[in-house]
Amino acid sequence: MKILMINKFLHPNGGSETYIFKLGEYLNANGHQVQYFGMEHQGRIVGNDVDAYTSDMDFHTGSKLQKLTYPIKTIYSSEARKKIRQVLDDFKPDVCHLNNFNYQLTPSIILEIVKWRKQTGRKCRIVYTAHDYQLVCPNHMCNNMGQNCEKCLNGSFINCLKNKCIHGSTAKSVIGTLEASIWNATKVYKHIDAIICCSNFLKTKLDTNKLLRAKTVAMHNFVDKVQLPQNLTKKDYVLYFGRYSEEKGVKTLVDVCKSLPDINFVFAGTGPLESELNGISNITNVGFKTGEDLKTLISQARFTIYPSQWYENCPFSVMESQLYSTPVLGADIGGIPELIQDGITGELFESANAKELKEKIEKMWSFEDITKKYTQNCKKVQFSTIEQYVEKLLDIYR
Predict the structure, then answer these.
(1) Which end is more exposed in the chain, N or C (fewer Cβ atoms within 10 Å of the end residue's Cβ)?
(2) Three-state DSSP class for 140?
(3) Cα separation of 289 and 252, whole Å?
């Protein structure tokens, strides 16, 4: 089977890129042919045989002339249509697997895939993996200035402009509102054959759009198999690892940490709230960690905390903790409750509720038998491997 993997970034940039690279590598290794389409970038690590990519669009460092043209190009891109057509004519894919494409590639690429199918008579499936809420929310997070928001889920995208939902900017929110409104009016997404949602929660939000409802399927992300350290021993600390930001619940967590001076907390990550951690005696900030260093931190923690305050979908941090036999205390928001067996592999607390968060931390810290039981239960946890995930994916492709 020939699969054209489509994503705006073709260099390591975040979770969606990790997803397409690992999928592509596995599919290639199992006899399928995979090529990629997206933006050109000096860090690009995958591509296609005709070297056709759109020009790099950097909203932060582009020239003044480039920035003047961006408002138009983020809604419709004739360049993207022209470039993807070159790849379609050469590669002749059986499946076009869309990922993040709004703004940089634009939904205009869907129109070109449909046009190519009609002109060539090829039966090419269009599959989309939703990594966020972009199809129903112009700012893609259902969150504005730290507050969760569902005002656009009824299709009234003007709320994006009214509330300056995109970076608090009127100009950017105008563009986001136009982009969502235009493509919603043209019903371009009706051409997508299947939409993969990485959580049941995400599926419920996309299902508020009746055009998408019949196409969605929930499939939690796959995780790599892990090798547990030999002679695993827990140490006396609680771990938070991830981005230090408001929507991740870090401010709430730090305030709770201050009220629990007898408990040691380790923070691993980076972000805009890093200064909030300074000068707190029971918080050790070890900075951004990866690989073996992060693996050791996770596996030796008594438990980890995932205190998010926005609609998380399928956070790998929650799954990874349990795979390393470490219980999770997680916020009951978004897709997080789907990943934690409350009272078995960890516990849940009401998102943004500092009082309940403190009580749950004290409980899991004080009653060691509880966390030992949770630790043993985590060793039995099973999430989908890439083999199992691809088996389901191939059914969708076909």
Answers:
(1) C
(2) coil
(3) 22
pLDDT confidence of residue 71: 66
pLDDT value for 231: 73
Give the residue carrying structure tokens 């709320």.
159
CA trace torsion 188, 192, 193, 196 (10° rounding): -140
Confidence of residue 60 (pLDDT cuts 50, 70, 90): low
Pairs from 257-263 (Cβ < 8 Å, separation ≥ 24): 257/282, 257/283, 259/358, 260/358, 260/361, 260/362, 263/238, 263/361, 263/362, 263/365
**pLDDT score recorded for residue 370:** 84
Its pTM surpasses 0.85: yes
pLDDT, one tens digit per residue, over 219-245 is 999 998 887 767 778 999 999 999 999
- What span, in angstroms and rounded, lies between the C-alpha atoms of 370 and 363? 9
Dig out the tokens for 171 from the structure: 């100009």
Location of structure tokens 């090798």: 227
Contact present, 305 and 240 (Cβ < 8 Å): yes
Which residues partner with 97 through β-bridges? 5, 127
Round to whole Å and give the CA distance between 150 and 226: 37
